[in-house]
Design a protein that fits this description.
This protein is mainly α and 109 residues long. It has 4 helices and no strands. It has one domain. 70% of the residues lie in helices and 0% in strands. Helix 3 runs antiparallel to helix 4.
């Protein structure tokens, strides 16, 4: 990666169109909800970001000629993080509280 790639406005141009759109929507939602201090929607934004990146990694890993096993593993881990963040969002949004195992961290705002 040359120095011209670092200054490029498209830091995630290696993402395909669908994961790039999902990632962008999640990133905007995450940043806006940090300013608005709404932790439920912050977890939704994180789940979209992890989902977009995981979808891209998994797709690239499955399409590679010699199977790119680390891409498949990284994609599955990112999709697992997305599922966890979506679970926390769903629990926080519907019950108004974090799941029991996260309540001791004091993020309830």
């Amino acid at each position: 990666m040359g120095s011209e790639d670092v200054r490029s406005p498209w830091h995630f141009r290696e993402l395909h169109l669908f994961p790039r759109v999902v990632f962008a929507i999640g990133a905007v939602l995450f940043v806006v909800t940090l300013i608005a201090r709404d932790s439920a929607l912050s977890f939704l934004g994180l789940s979209l970001v992890f989902g977009g990146v995981g979808w891209n990694l998994l797709g690239d890993g499955l399409r590679a000629r010699p199977k790119w096993k680390s891409g498949i593993v990284q994609g599955l881990i990112a999709l697992g993080c997305a599922a966890f963040c979506f679970y926390v969002f769903q629990h926080r949004y519907y019950s108004g509280d974090l799941p029991y195992f996260l309540q001791r961290f004091g993020i309830n705002r």
